[in-house]
Design goal:
Layout lengths: L1 H4 L3 H7 L6 H14 L4 H18 L8 H7 L7 H13 L3 H6 L4 H16 L7 H10 L3 H4 L3 E2 L10 E2 L5
Antiparallel strand pairs: 1-2
Length: about 170
Amino acid sequence: MQLTQGGSQQTAARRLGLPPGRYPAAAGFHVQRWARDGANPARLHAALHTLAAELDATPASDLIDYGRRRDALTAWSLPADDWHELATDLSGRQHARARVSTSWGERKRRVASVLVWARVTQGEYLFAPLVLQDSQASGRSELAQGGCIKRPAGAAPAILTTTTPLS
């Protein structure tokens, strides 16, 4: 975004719909630190220009508007009736011992909603509307920091798992 339109990281974050605060700045810090090391600035510059040229050469009809997806899913979560139907089906597939100890309640519905949002938007789960709402309400997100969701070491942002299996 900064390459094509200029401006600060904060401006780019605002245009992308990212919340103000430490997340965009922290991500920028890591990239900037990496880019100061040896040949990395030239590699990063070349990679960004290659990506920009590839995007410019791609017909607009073939590009996915992830921002539009994020906008469309701003207030979305798995509907309670659909979650109940899904949970009933999944519960029926469990071994009897696991079925007794598995809670398919509201918290798991919300975690599943965050996982779906991250997959569909290819967005960082920390920016999922449910996580952000949770953070704004309490100053800390139970969904993001309560051990519900984790990213395997070295995985891309959209590759997530739950700390307790959904099934």
